[in-house]
Amino acid sequence: MAYPNVKNCGETCPFYPRIGELRWEHHLSCAEVARRTGVSPHTYRNYELGRVPIRAKFVIRLAYFYNVSIDYIVELIDQREPHQRKKQDAVSSILLFYCNQ
């Protein structure tokens, strides 16, 4: 299966260069992003290098962490700003709950 707008490290592992670009722009180390987003430094580095597939749950965390849209991270759009989020809509509540697990 090919993924649109991403570089591939194989058929099952999309590589999203923007996660590394965002980390670099914020002057953060891999270990710091890993700590702040709740994954091991090894796992984060593997995500950034495209060695393993990135879980959707983690992409959501990154979008909240960097305050960008998921579409921006996966290179579907070039606009960084996240979509308008309502404070207490059901989807946001579910996503926040799911991402904090």
UniProtKB/TrEMBL annotation:
Transmembrane segments: none annotated. SMART domains: HTH_XRE (SM00530). SUPFAM superfamilies: lambda repressor-like DNA-binding domains (SSF47413). It holds the Pfam family HTH_31. GO terms for molecular function: DNA binding. Residues 19-73 form the HTH cro/C1-type domain. InterPro entries: Cro/C1-type_HTH (IPR001387), Lambda_DNA-bd_dom_sf (IPR010982). This is Helix-turn-helix transcriptional regulator. The lineage of its organism: Bacteria, Bacillati, Bacillota, Clostridia, Eubacteriales.
